[in-house]
Amino acid sequence: MNSVSHCMALNDGHFIPVLGFGTTVPHKISKNEVIKATKMAIDAGFRHFDSAYSYEIEEEVGQAIRSKIADGTVKREDIFYTSKLWSTFHRPELVRSCLEITLKKAQLDYVDLYIIHFPMALQPGDKLLPRDEHGNLLVDPVNLCDTWEAMEKCKDAGLAKSIGVSNFNRRQLEMILNKPGLKYKPVCNQVECHIYLNQNKMLDYCKSKDITLIAYCTLGSSRDTLWVDQNSPVLLDDPVLCTMAKKYKQTPALVALRYLLQRGIVVLARSFNEKRIKENIQVFEFQLTSEDMNILDGLNRNLRYNSAYFFNGHPNHPFIDEY
Question: What is the chain's mean pLDDT, rounded?
Answer without folding.
Answer: 93
